[in-house]
Amino acid sequence: MATSIYDAVGGMRALTALAHAWHERCLADPVVSHAFSHGYHPDHTARLAAYWAEALGGPPAYTAHLASESEVVRMHSGNGPHVEMDERAVACFADAVDEAGLGDDPVVRDALVAYFTWATAYMGTYHGSADDVPDALTVPKWSWQGLVGGTDSRPRQHTG
């Protein structure tokens, strides 16, 4: 088994295909599409793939060049609970894993779906208000065993 999920899926190219397949499925879903009704960045799938890459053991390009974890969580916050939308987004993801050709290995497929299921719930942590999201959150990392200890997006401790 590859050292990271990122490596096992085939890196950025595979995650970009996954992000595109998932996004298309979400836009076609009558419930999940609501999350995109306000519009989205023209490079949404590339940005999403970069975020997933960072979370799954790839390079930290997302937070180095695009946005901080706190900004990501704020963007997904303040919308109240949306259990049905989350469940359907996970179903779209599981189907997208297969569509992108990443579902042939059940261990890889299970790891991807487990990550996305956890991440979907995590992004809803601050459903009351984006103002509740603390500064200096870090991207939670996901491995074959699940959430990597110490990377659960708690604010970094500032020393100095």
UniProtKB/TrEMBL annotation:
InterPro entries xrefs: Globin-like_sf, Globin/Proto, Hemoglobin_trunc
CDD domains according to UniProt: TrHb2_O-like
Endoplasmic reticulum as UniProt keyword: no
SUPFAM superfamilies reported for this sequence: Globin-like
Keywords: Heme, Iron, Metal-binding, Transport
Highest taxon in the source lineage: Bacteria
Name of the protein this chain belongs to: Group II truncated hemoglobin
Organism: Terrabacter terrigena
